[in-house]
């Protein structure tokens, strides 16, 4: 059986660890070439080397990228296009969070989170569309969060940034459709996933208690695994989702139904 994304060429941000690394491994295992971009280029290179050892040399490539810097986006995309022979999938995954309620949060942290979480999607899509046009059908997959659909009292900047990613994804989808492009844009909205983003909570309460506290908030009774999200990225990157655009996938264990 042909692999599900054979011939696809994916550019993934925040790929040195966590979800981004899981996405790269999953797409490569299903036949895609992958470019792993991260400000931690050594980490991205290590994951790329692991993928190449498993899938064959020339499957994965690593590039340095600060997703808030337009000039770095332009350079990284150009290099990835040359390395893979095109770009047909863009996965905007890079993201961070800062705590503090609306009175406690500093303006510096507000700007930092908005820059990494929202500016990156704008810059990445703006400059990747040149390559996606040349490699249709194409797919843009933006990693938002269930926190972009459901608010909390103590995470205003994370809520706002991920809500912006959600609606920006729809606007991008409509733009591509209006242009007559066979390029889709969708967002994914995970809840708590077993990645390093949970480490501060684990350090505060201990791994077992931290994960139990989070699991109690999820109707399915557990936190998610990286592959739970990687499988959705695989679907959206593949031609199986050719009629899906401007949509959101909630991978939240049922939280949004409560």
TrEMBL record:
This is D-xylose 1-dehydrogenase. It comes from the Bacteria. The lineage of its organism: Bacteria, Pseudomonadati, Pseudomonadota, Alphaproteobacteria, Caulobacterales. It is an enzyme of class 1 (oxidoreductase). PANTHER family: OXIDOREDUCTASE, SHORT-CHAIN DEHYDROGENASE/REDUCTASE FAMILY (AFU_ORTHOLOGUE AFUA_5G02870), SHORT-CHAIN DEHYDROGENASE_REDUCTASE FAMILY PROTEIN. Pfam families: adh_short_C2. Belongs to the short-chain dehydrogenases/reductases (SDR) family. GO terms for molecular function: D-xylose 1-dehydrogenase (NAD+) activity.
